[in-house]
Amino acid sequence: MDTHAVIASLPVAGADRTVLIDAANAAFERIVERMEPANEDLARSYWDAESYIDNEITASMLPISVDYAAYLVDVFLMPHVAQLAGAADNEAAKARP
């Protein structure tokens, strides 16, 4: 990215929010493609990029550059996607007779 924009307050809004949601969605797609979860459609249904951004960027991180925030969103998404895949597996197992 390489911008000089800084997030100084929460919730993240406007163009900064759009940039972070786009980064989160791109990272999610890349991770799901690599991970190949057993119940991919269900795991995808649990994904909520806006909620992820709202919960990942916290007041203790401020001020933070948009570039660095996007980097952190990408870095910390893998375990979140693994949790979504695990929840999808659990849900699918409950649905089986």
Please provide a written account of the structure.
The chain is mainly α. 68% of the residues lie in helices and 4% in strands. The protein has 5 helices and 2 strands. The protein has a two-stranded antiparallel sheet. Helix 1 (14-35) packs parallel to helix 4 (66-75) and helix 1 (14-35) packs across helix 5. The radius of gyration is 15 Å and the shape is elongated. The N and C termini lie far apart (49 Å). The mean pLDDT is 94.
Task: Give a quick summary of the entry.
The protein is mainly α and 97 residues long. It has helices at 14-35, 40-46, 49-56, 66-75, 77-95; strands spanning 6-7, 64-65. A two-stranded antiparallel ribbon has the order 1-2.
Helix content: 55-70%
Strand content is under 5%
Q: Which residue ranges are poorly predicted, with pLDDT under 50 across at least 5 consecutive positions?
A: none
The tally of strands reads 2
- Please report the number of helical segments: 5
Give the ordered list of helices and strands: EHHHEHH
Strand order of the largest sheet: 1-2
**Radius of gyration, taken over Cα atoms and rounded to an integer in Å:** 15 Å
Most strands sheet: 2 strands, antiparallel
Gross morphology: elongated
Label the structural class.
Answer: mainly alpha
Distance between the termini: 49 Å
Mean pLDDT: 94
Question: How does the SSE layout of this entry go?
Answer:
Elements: E1 6-7, H1 14-35, H2 40-46, H3 49-56, E2 64-65, H4 66-75, H5 77-95
Antiparallel strand pairs: 1-2
Helix pairs in contact: 1-3, 1-4, 1-5, 2-5
